[in-house]
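*** Query protein ***
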Amino acid sequence: MKLIVVTDIFALPAKADCISEKLPDISTIERFGLNELCGQPNLSGEALHQYLFTDGGLEKAANSMLSIAGKDSYGLGYSAGGTLLWKAVTEGLILKGLFCISSTRLRHQKCIATPNHVFFGAKDHGKPSDEWLIDVPERQTVFEDRGHNFYRDPELPDVAEMQQKIASDMRLMSSDTDLG
């Protein structure tokens, strides 16, 4: 299986701390930074966030993703990286499955046909509403007592649980695709 990973606005998590490094059955991992995808390699942090969500960078990055990814891939996005992948799917990107972690700007997005699972910390102030979590994503997991950046600590039990859920979902999505 091939996995496309898009990091957050700070290029985190580091490769060694990424859930992708612990997933079974992954043959290829392609890792991208948001700044590369939107053509602004010198931007990071809040300047990159501003460019993505105020100055049209998200659309530019989504178009870049359309030319990179293939239909036999899964997507894993952290924070704004997940929002980018979701946006790319709405623009025509075909993925076997999509996993978005702490992607708070998804609160502005609608349902997609691609199988998906979103993960949030209950104490993340930008987390989408309970109604959005019920109506939009196919699957959702909210971790109690966690804020936005919980995914940056690979030692948390919640991160291990998230990795297990993603691995399980990928097996299910793969078998569903094989049957269809």
Remarks:
- Residues 2-179 form a domain with the Rossmann fold fold (CATH 3.40.50.1820).
- The radius of gyration is 15 Å.
- Residues 157-179 form the longest helix (23 residues).
- The chain has a mean pLDDT of 93.
